[in-house]
Automatic annotation (TrEMBL), chain A:
It comes from Hansschlegelia plantiphila. It is found in: Cell membrane. InterPro entries: ABC_transp_permease, ABC_transptr_urea_perm_UrtC, LivM-like. It is a multi-pass membrane protein. One of its GO terms (molecular function) is branched-chain amino acid transmembrane transporter activity. Keywords: Cell membrane, Membrane, Transmembrane, Transmembrane helix. It comes from the Bacteria. GO terms for cellular component: plasma membrane. This is Urea ABC transporter permease subunit UrtC. Pfam families: BPD_transp_2.
UniProtKB/TrEMBL annotation, chain B:
One of its GO terms (molecular function) is transmembrane transporter activity. NCBIfam families: urea_trans_UrtB. Belongs to the binding-protein-dependent transport system permease family. LivHM subfamily. It comes from Hansschlegelia plantiphila. InterPro entries: ABC_transp_permease, ABC_UrtB_bac, BCAA_transport_permease. GO terms for cellular component: plasma membrane. The lineage of its organism: Bacteria, Pseudomonadati, Pseudomonadota, Alphaproteobacteria, Hyphomicrobiales. The chain crosses the membrane at residues 7-37, 57-81, 93-115, 144-161, 190-216, 223-243, 255-276. Keywords: Amino-acid transport, Cell membrane, Membrane, Transmembrane, Transmembrane helix, Transport. This is Urea ABC transporter permease subunit UrtB. Its main location: membrane. It is found in: Cell membrane.
From TrEMBL, chain C:
It comes from Hansschlegelia plantiphila. PANTHER family: CONSERVED COMPONENT OF ABC TRANSPORTER FOR NATURAL AMINO ACIDS-RELATED (PTHR45772), HIGH-AFFINITY BRANCHED-CHAIN AMINO ACID TRANSPORT ATP-BINDING PROTEIN (PTHR45772:SF8). This is ABC transporter ATP-binding protein. One of its GO terms (molecular function) is ATP hydrolysis activity. GO terms for cellular component: plasma membrane. The keyword ATP-binding applies. The keyword Hydrolase does not apply. It comes from the Bacteria. Keywords: ATP-binding, Nucleotide-binding, Transport. Residues 5-244 form the ABC transporter domain.
Length: 369, 291, 248
C-alpha cells in the first residue's frame, strides 16, 4: 500500500544500510590520503544535511551557511593553534608578524582545548539563534532572508580579512600540528579521524531525521507550505523558524570543526559566497526534501569535482552550472524525487493491478508545479 | 583632521555612490518589475566589460562607442536568458535565484575558457585619466564620467518609466499582472523587454568598471551582493535605489575616512541588515510590497 | 451574561479610506452570529481584525475577558479563536492527514514539539473529524489535489481540530452542494453546544436556517442587529440590499 518511499520503516532501513556501507570503508581502504578525502566528503555531507533541514524541511533558504561553518572552523583552528603554543611561546607566529606582543582577549579562552571546542560550536549556534530570531520575528522570509544571509556572510568575510592580526587575514590560520584531544593526537589521515567525522555525520543525520518526524517537523513543513496560515493555527512561526535555522547552524558549526581537524587549515575562502552557494547546490541536486538525498548530492558533486575535475578541469564549473540549471528547471526536488516518483509509479502499478481502477495513481504527483 | 580631506571624502562618496548605483540599476529594473532575483547580474556586468574589451581590441572601436555597444550585446544575452530559462520560473522566486546562480557559473567559466584567467585592460581616452582639481579636493576625470553616465541613465529610465506608454504598461504589470492582461498588456513581453533592458544596463556598468579596475572572469562576483543590497534597501524602485546608493556611498566614504575601506564595508553590511530588520520593505515601499 | 467576544468602537483605515468605522459587536457565548452585508461592507476585514491579521486604527477587541487587540495571530489563535478563510487556505503540499494533525495544536511550543512523536488523543479526534468532514478515504492524498468542495471541508475540519472556543467561518458554504449545505447547517447547530460561532455568509437561506443573531454591516459600520425576523423587516436593511440589487 502506498509509496514505499514514504514508509518510515523503509526509510530507517535505508539509513542503516547507508551508514553500514560508510562504516565498512575504513576497513576496506588503507590509502590514508583517500580516507582523509572521503572524510572531508562526510563534512560536506553534514553541510548539505544542514541545508536540507533548514531549506527542504523549514523552507528557509540560507545562502549564508558559511557563517556557521566558518565560525566553527575558525574556532577549531584557533584551538588547534593554541595547542601548539606553550608558556614559553604563547603567541602564534602570525600575530608576532603583525606586531602583536600579547595574546588578544579573543584568543585567550582557546588556550584551553575544552573551552575552545565549546566556543567553536556555541558561538556560531548563538549567532544563528540571535540573527535568526531577529529576522524571523520581523517576518523576513523567502528570497529576502536569503539576501540578508548573503549580506551577513559578506560582513563576516570582510571583517575576517580586515582584522589580520587576530584572524590571519587572507592567509587564514594553519595550525602546525594535528588536533589533540585528551592526550591523543587525531592524525587527519588516520581511520580515527574518519570515525570521528562518521560519528558526527551519523549523529547529525539521525537527529535531523527525528526532528523531521516529530511534531516540530510537521509544523515546519506546514510553515514551508504556507507560513501565514500556520499562524492562525496557534504556532509561533518565528519560533519554529529560529529553532530549525539554529539547529542547522549547529550542524554546520560541528562540520566546520571536523573540517579543520581534517585539513588543518582555515581561510576566509570558507566564508566565501560561492562556497555557501555550493552547499545549496549539493542539497538542490540531491533533493532538498530528502536528508539522505542531500548528503548524496554532496558526495556526488564533490566526488565528481575531484575525479572529473582532473580531466575536465577547465569545463567542470561549466558542467556543474549547466547541470544545476537543468535540475532547478526540470527537477526542482532534485534527484531524490526521481526515486520518489519511480517508486510511486511502481506502487500505483501494483495497486491498479490488484484492485479495480480506483482513482488514478495520483497519490504521488510529480512535483511539477 | 582637516576639513579639506573630509570634503574630499564626501566628494569621493558621491563617486562611490554612482558606482554602487550603476551596478544596481539593471537589477532594480528586473527585480522591481518581475520580482526576479538575478544572481547572474554580476556576470552580466563582467560580460559588459569583456564586450568592450573585445570591441576595442579586435575591432578598434573607440571607447565611447564601446559603452552603448556593450549595452546591446549584453541586452541580447539577457533576452536569450529570459526566453530560454527565466520565463519558466516567474512564479518560483527562490528557484530563479538558484537557476541564475547556475547561469553565473556557466558564464564565468565560459568566459574563462575563451579569454583565459589573465586580466585584460580596456583603454580609455587619455583625457579620462587626468584628475579634476577643485582646490581642496581632487577626483579622477573618469569617476566624473561614471557619475555623468549614471545620472544620464537614471534620467533616461525615469523618462522611460514615467513618460512613455511602455512605462505605463510596465507599472501596470507590476501592480497587477492579471488586471494588466485584461487590458491587453502582454506581461510576458514586458518581462522580456525589462529583463533585456536590465541586462543591457549591467553591460554599460561593466564597460565602465572595466576601465576603473581590471577585467577578469571573476570580477562580477564582487558586485552582485552589493547591488542586491542597494535594490533591497531601496525597496525595488528606481528612486529607492538612487537614495540607497547615495546614502551608502557617502557612508562608506566617510567611514573609510575614519577607519579603512574594508572595515567600512563591514559596517555597511551590518547597518544594512539592521536597517532591513526595521524596514523590511525598504526605503520606498511599493504598492503591494513584495515579500 | 457577558459576551465571549466584545468589539468596542473598532475603526480601521487604509490610507484615507475608512474600511471599518466605529464598529461595535458583542457575541454571547454559545450563540451563532451571522455577519451579513453587501460586498465591501467590511465583514472579512472585521475577521482580519479579530484574528490579528491586521491591526485596528482604534478600538478594542476583548475575548473571554482578555484584551486581544493588536496581539500576534498565533497568540489570538491560542487564546481559542479558529478561523476558516474566505478563499480556502489549506496546506497544499501536505496530505489531508497532516493538515488535520498540524491543526491539532494543543502543544505549540517548538521545543516540546521537538521531542513529541505521538500525540495523545489525536487519533480519536482525527477519526471523528475526518468522518464528519467526509474525508476519511482521502487522508493520504495531497491536499492540493482536492476539489473545491473537499478543500472547504478540509479547512472546516482543520478549524474543528483546533478545538477553538470561537469559530470564525468566512463563507463556509461557497461551492457546496445542497446536501452539503444542509450537513454544514447541522454541524454548525451542533457546534453551538460547545462553542461560539461567527459566520460570514451571503446566502440568506442558510443564514435564516442557522442564525441566532444576525448582524448587518454596511460601509464598515453596524447597520442593524437582532433576530433574522427583526433584521429582515428593518427598512434600512431593505434599502441597502435593494439598492445593491438595483445596482447589480
Amino acid at each position: 500500500m502506498g509509496n514505499i518511499y514514504h514508509n518510515k520503516t523503509a526509510q530507517w532501513i535505508v539509513y542503516a544500510v547507508f551508514f553500514a556501507i560508510l562504516a565498512v570503508i575504513p576497513i576496506k581502504i588503507d590509502d590514508s590520503f583517500l580516507l582523509n578525502q572521503l572524510a572531508t566528503y562526510g563534512v560536506y555531507g553534514m553541510l548539505a544535511l544542514s541545508i536540507s533541514l533548514c531549506w527542504g524541511f523549514g523552507g528557509i533558504l540560507n545562502l549564508g551557511q558559511g557563517i556557521a561553518f566558518g565560525l566553527g572552523a575558525y574556532g577549531m583552528a584557533m584551538t588547534m593553534q593554541m595547542q601548539s603554543q606553550d608558556a614559553s611561546n604563547p603567541i602564534p607566529p602570525f600575530m608576532l608578524n603583525n606586531s602583536l606582543d600579547h595574546l588578544p582577549l579573543l584568543w585567550q579562552p582557546f588556550q584551553n582545548t575544552t573551552a575552545g571546542l565549546i566556543l567553536s560550536v556555541a558561538v556560531p549556534t548563538l549567532f544563528c539563534a540571535v540573527f535568526g530570531g531577529i529576522m524571523f520575528r520581523a517576518r523576513v522570509s523567502g528570497p529576502f532572508f536569503a539576501i540578508m544571509t548573503l549580506a551577513m556572510l559578506s560582513a563576516f568575510y570582510t571583517i575576517i580579512i580586515d582584522r589580520q592580526p587576530y584572524t590571519g587575514g587572507v592567509n587564514g590560520l594553519t595550525p602546525p600540528s594535528a588536533f589533540q584531544f585528551a592526550g591523543v593526537e587525531v592524525d587527519p589521515y588516520s581511520p580515527t579521524a574518519y570515525w570521528v567525522v562518521f560519528c558526527f555525520l551519523m549523529g547529525a543525520t539521525v537527529v535531523a531525521k527525528l526532528i523531521t518526524q516529530s511534531s516540530f517537523g510537521l509544523v515546519t513543513q506546514a510553515i514551508r507550505d504556507d507560513a501565514e496560515r500556520v499562524r492562525f493555527l496557534g504556532y509561533s512561526v518565528a519560533g519554529y523558524e529560529t529553532v530549525i535555522y539554529t539547529v542547522a547552524g549547529l550542524i554546520a558549526a560541528i562540520a566546520g570543526c571536523c573540517w579543520v581537524m581534517l585539513v588543518q587549515y582555515v581561510s576566509p575562502a570558507q566564508l566565501d559566497v560561492s562556497f555557501s552557494l555550493s552547499m545549496v547546490i549539493w542539497a538542490a541536486i540531491g533533493g532538498r526534501h530528502s536528508l539522505l538525498g542531500s548528503i548524496f548530492g554532496a558526495f556526488i558533486i564533490q566526488g565528481a569535482q575531484s575525479y572529473l575535475g582532473d580531466t575536465f578541469l577547465a569545463t567542470w564549473l561549466l558542467i556543474l552550472g549547466g547541470f544545476f540549471i537543468i535540475v532547478v528547471r526540470f527537477l526542482p526536488n532534485g534527484l531524490a524525487s526521481l526515486l520518489e516518483s519511480g517508486l510511486g509509479l511502481l506502487a500505483a502499478k501494483r495497486r491498479s493491478s490488484s484492485a479495480a481502477v480506483e482513482r488514478n495513481g495520483d497519490a504521488n504527483p510529480m512535483p511539477a508545479e | 583632521m582637516d576639513l579639506g580631506s573630509l570634503l574630499n571624502a564626501l566628494i569621493l562618496g558621491v563617486s562611490i555612490a554612482s558606482i554602487w548605483l550603476i551596478a544596481a540599476l539593471g537589477l532594480t529594473i528586473i527585480y522591481g518589475t518581475a520580482g526576479v532575483i538575478n544572481m547572474a547580474h554580476g556576470e552580466l556586468i563582467m560580460l559588459g566589460a569583456y564586450s568592450s574589451y573585445m570591441l576595442q581590441f579586435y575591432l578598434g572601436l573607440p571607447y565611447l562607442l564601446c559603452i552603448p555597444a556593450s549595452f546591446f550585446i549584453v541586452a541580447f544575452v539577457g533576452l536569450v536568458l529570459e526566453r530560454g530559462l527565466i520565463r519558466y520560473l516567474y512564479n518560483r522566486p527562490l528557484d530563479t535565484l538558484l537557476a541564475t546562480y547556475g547561469v553565473s557559473l556557466v558564464l564565468m567559466q565560459g568566459v574563462r575558457l575563451i579569454f583565459g584567467s589573465d586580466p585584460k585592460y580596456i583603454a580609455a581616452p587619455a583625457a579620462f585619466s587626468s584628475n579634476i582639481s577643485l582646490g581642496f579636493a581632487s577626483i579622477s576625470t573618469f569617476r566624473v564620467v561614471i557619475l555623468g553616465v549614471t545620472a544620464l541613465l537614471v534620467f533616461g529610465l525615469w523618462l522611460l518609466f514615467y513618460k512613455t506608454r511602455f512605462g505605463v504598461q510596465v507599472r501596470a504589470v507590476m501592480q497587477n499582472k492579471e488586471m494588466a492582461a485584461s487590458f491587453g498588456i502582454n506581461s510576458g513581453r514586458i518581462y522580456m523587454l525589462t529583463f533585456a533592458l536590465g541586462a543591457g544596463l549591467a553591460g554599460v556598468a561593466g564597460s565602465l568598471f572595466g576601465v576603473l579596475a581590471i577585467v577578469l572572469p571573476t570580477m562580477g562576483a564582487s558586485y552582485v551582493v552589493q547591488a542586491f543590497l542597494m535594490v533591497v534597501v531601496g525597496g525595488g524602485s528606481l528612486a529607492g535605489s538612487v537614495a540607497a546608493s547615495g546614502a551608502t556611498g557617502e557612508l562608506q566614504s566617510v567611514l573609510a575616512f575614519f577607519t579603512n575601506d574594508t572595515f567600512a564595508r563591514f559596517i555597511i553590511f551590518v547597518l544594512i541588515v539592521v536597517f532591513l530588520r526595521f524596514r523590511p520593505q525598504g526605503l520606498f515601499a511599493q504598492a503591494g510590497a513584495r515579500r | 451574561m457577558a459576551g465571549l467576544l466584545e468589539i468596542h468602537n473598532l475603526s480601521k483605515s487604509f490610507d484615507a479610506t475608512k474600511v471599518i468605522n466605529d464598529f461595535s459587536l458583542e457575541v454571547v457565548e454559545g450563540t451563532l452570529c451571522c455577519l451579513v452585508g453587501p460586498n465591501g461592507a467590511g465583514k472579512t476585514t472585521t475577521l482580519d481584525l479579530i484574528t490579528g491579521r491586521i491591526k485596528p486604527t482604534s478600538g478594542k477587541i476583548i475575548f473571554a475577558g482578555e484584551d486581544i487587540t493588536a496581539k500576534h495571530e498565533h497568540v489570538i489563535a491560542r487564546a481559542g479563536i479558529g478561523r476558516k478563510f474566505q478563499v480556502p487556505a489549506v496546506l497544499r503540499d501536505l496530505t489531508v492527514r497532516q493538515n488535520l494533525e498540524v491543526s491539532y495544536s494543543r502543544q505549540t511550543n517548538p521545543f516540546w514539539n521537538l521531542f513529541k512523536f505521538r500525540n495523545a488523543g489525536l487519533k480519536e479526534k482525527l477519526d471523528e473529524i475526518a468522518t464528519l468532514a467526509g474525508l476519511k478515504d482521502r487522508l493520504g492524498e495531497r491536499a492540493g489535489i482536492l476539489s473545491h468542495g473537499e478543500t472547504q471541508w478540509l479547512e472546516i475540519g482543520m478549524v474543528l481540530m483546533q478545538e477553538p472556543r470561537l469559530l470564525l467561518m468566512d463563507e463556509p458554504i461557497a461551492g457546496m452542494t445542497e446536501g452539503e449545505i444542509e450537513k454544514t447547517a447541522r454541524i454548525f447547530k451542533d457546534l453551538r453546544k460547545t462553542a461560539t460561532l461567527i459566520v460570514v455568509e451571503h446566502d440568506m437561506g442558510f443564514v435564516r436556517e442557522i442564525a441566532d443573531v444576525v448582524t448587518v454591516m454596511h460601509m464598515g459600520s453596524l447597520l442593524a442587529q437582532g433576530t433574522i425576523k427583526q433584521v429582515e423587516s428593518d427598512p434600512r436593511v431593505r434599502d441597502v440590499y435593494l439598492g445593491e440589487q438595483e445596482a447589480a
